[in-house]
Amino acid sequence: MMSLFSPLLFVSVLCMNSFSAVQGKKWKGEGTTQNLESIVIGRCYEYIRLVNPAVGEKNCSQIWEAFKNAFINKDPCNILPEDYELFINLTFHTIPPNKSLFWENNQLLVTSLAARGRRYMSVGDTLFGFLADFLIWCGQADSPGLDYESCPTMAECENNAVDSFWRIASVTYAKHSSGVVQVLLNGSAEGGAYPQPGFFADYEIPNFQKDKISQVVIWVVDDIEGPDRDSCGTNSVKTLETRLKTLGFDVTCTDNYKSVMFLLCLDYPDHSKCAFASSAPAAQRGPISSDRGGSWNKLMFVSFAGFLFRFALVY
Q1: In a 3-state reduction of DSSP, which class is residue 180?
Q2: Dmax of the chain from CA atoms?
Q3: What count of Cα atoms within 13 Å lies in the side-chain half-sphere of residue 217?
Q4: Mean of all residue pLDDT scores within the chain
């Protein structure tokens, strides 16, 4: 009898396991980043000790608690930006004038360009952004734990823990940016360099402070191996320029800004787009080399003549 029913039993167990796996992964997005607490607290100390000690002392354990309490024990689709207000207040610091760098569709390039605040300070280079950059997190309703299996995406619900966080981070960052602000856009992005809706369009531009910002500098840079879909004065970039000018900002726009191209070309040194002209004219190199050779010959001759002269005096 056991041998007759064992295949049926095997199938039943397999189905139950599959059902449990499906139930465990409730959402389409990746689950909470492993060791989230250690990463956030560790990044906090790294920032205040090494990356930007100028922000002064911060209570990293208290910052973690404020971050966690914004979404723990709550419906992961009902987390609002204001839930992170305490966290933002605890991590806030001044953003240096002329260093703000806004972006769309080129996060890794912006990270390289900003160089952890040495060149520019993007939202990911502030303390509040640094702690959360590239991480995923969410909780569960009526549960003190984190969901490591899955988290909701923007497509599943707008008010998820991660997107709500970046909304308040973007608003805070934009409100406190000043002087000349930079905007780096991807001219190869599908749908245009200036996406609408988007964080820059919906949360950052509306919070620009006209009395604090002297100029908006736009850089539209194509991927090295990507198409040229958008440029200054055309398509979505033209829409952006018009919007900013209508708001009363002084706006400039440059395609394939050379400093950014240098960074991109580190990974594509032999690409035709990376054949930058030398700043030194080739014609100068011959004479400079010959002159050095002539000077060396004269030096040798004078030295030898001096030796002969001293020799004659002695003998």
Answers
A1: strand
A2: 124
A3: 13
A4: 86
In angstroms, the first-to-last Cα distance of the chain is 124
Q: Please compute the mean of the pLDDT values over residues 283-300 and round it to a whole number.
A: 45
pLDDT at residue 143, rounded to an integer? 86
CA distance 151 to 25: 9
Q: Helices 36-46 and 60-69: crossing angle, nearest 10°?
A: 140
Q: Is the pLDDT of residue 70 over 70?
A: yes
CA distances from 219 to 179, 237, 252, 273 (A): 17, 10, 9, 17
Q: Are 103 and 184 in contact (CB under 8 A)?
A: yes
pLDDT-derived band at 142, boundaries 50, 70, 90: confident
User: Residue 154 in contact with residue 160, Cβ under 8 Å?
Assistant: yes
224 neighbors 271 (Cβ within 8 angstroms):
yes
What backbone torsions phi and psi does residue 76 show, to the nearest 5 degrees?
Answer: -65, -10
Nearest to 101 by CA among 117, 87, 85: 117
**How many Å apart are CA 4 and CA 86, to the nearest integer?**
63
